[in-house]
Amino acid sequence: MKLSKLQLENYRNYQTVDLTFSPSLNIFLGENAQGKTNLLESIYVLALTRSHRTNQEKEFIRFGSEFARLVAEVEKNNSTFTLEMSISSKGKKTKINHLEQRKLSDYIGELNVVLFAPEDLLLIKGAPQLRRRFIDMELGQINPLYLYHLTVYQKVLKQRNKYLKELDSQPNEAALTFLDVLTDQLVEAGSQVIFMRLSFIEKLEKWAQETHQKISNHKELLTLTYDASFEIDSGATVQTIGQRFKNSLDKNRKRELFNRSTSVGPHRDDLLFFINDKEVQTFGSQGQQRTTALSIKLAELELIHEELNEYPILLLDDVMSELDDDRQIHLLETIDGKVQTFISTTTLKHLSNKLTTDPEIFKVDNGTVARSELI
């Protein structure tokens, strides 16, 4: 998979951008706050229709403009197609080959990306919601059905929580009957979400273990555990997950009526990382946390390739300076020659003697982008 062209109009601090890329390595070089990350973000937004930096879509639109427009030419599976996304006060529209897509699930997955930024270290030591979001974004790219079940779950969860808040302190039988209906709908969608997450984590662990052992010279074994908010049996099916989920909701009904919110489900689950059976979030050193984050990101590349028979595009947002020499070398060796990569950086000092591929360099300066021969 390759991103061959990118056009931006009124996006962030860019009035117009029209770029053609190398199929291997592209570097956005410039000082801080000049727009390097905005370029990487635009590729991410084109792929996933949302940003890794903000939930406010109005921030995409250049100050003083009424809309933003992003267009990419993508090469995938021996074919070329165009992706387009426009954002205005009326919302966002997505197009594939100039045809508007009514459902985001029909659009997401056409362009696959893996982003690694300094804040991704929070994937290891941050709040559970960051890890849930990570699973949702990555799994949603490769499985549109997951996006469908997740959307249904979130919709029913919102409705159920709203209903719990509206119930009397001692609801009558009719009110509880409707709560049962919402509970059954929640369990149906939620058990599918959890089942797909478990499969995803199992595959991700396989690739992450292999990568982590190489980086640690086979001294450390990385394992991943899906930490559900209710007990799940080994080898669980959608049906057995659903039964456990329903039993847990029934058991917690009094507490839910008191707290007026849904107590268990995939919206409360977590992902745990262990090195040699010790939890990385709590007991891992900073170096182990960084290696775990890098292993997970490189595992994503291999997992997506395994599922789609295409490597995704890799976005490295000022992350090289956060890694020591050994991790930098391992990262560059892993992607060399097989993954189209975009790097944002303020300097080439930590890269120039480690690159085996001549990169395409773009100098970014206050919302302008120009090719550079610097190396």
Per-chain topology:
Elements: E1 2-11, E2 14-20, E3 25-29, H1 36-48, E4 67-76, E5 79-88, E6 91-96, E7 99-100, H2 104-107, E8 113-116, H3 122-125, H4 128-142, H5 144-166, H6 173-215, E9 222-227, H7 238-251, H8 253-259, E10 270-275, E11 278-279, H9 280-283, H10 286-308, E12 313-317, H11 325-335, E13 341-345, E14 360-365, E15 368-372
Parallel strand pairs: 3-13, 3-14, 8-12, 12-13
Antiparallel strand pairs: 1-2, 1-4, 4-5, 5-6, 6-7, 9-10, 10-11, 14-15
Helix pairs in contact: 4-5, 5-6, 6-7, 6-10
General description of the model:
The chain is α/β, with parallel strands linked by helices and about 375 residues long. It folds into two domains: about 1-110 and about 310-375, Rossmann fold; about 125-305, Up-down Bundle (Glutathione S-transferase Yfyf (Class Pi), Chain A, domain 2). Helix content is about 45%, strand content about 25%. The chain has eleven helices and 15 strands. The chain has helices at about 35-50, 105, 120-125, 130-140, 145-165, 175-215, 240-250, 255-260, 280-285, 285-310, 325-335, and strands spanning about 1-10, 15-20, 25-30, 65-75, 80-90, 90-95, 100, 115, 220-225, 270-275, 280, 315, 340-345, 360-365, 370. The strands form three sheets. A six-stranded antiparallel β-sheet has the order 2-1-4-5-6-7, with helices on one face. Strands 8-12-13-3-14-15 form a six-stranded mixed β-sheet, with helices on both faces. A hairpin with a 2-residue loop joins strand 5 (about 80-90) and strand 6 (about 90-95). Helix 5 packs across helix 6 (about 175-215) and helix 6 (about 175-215) crosses helix 10 (about 285-310). The longest helix is centred in the middle third of the chain and has 43 residues, at about 175-215. The mean pLDDT is about 90.
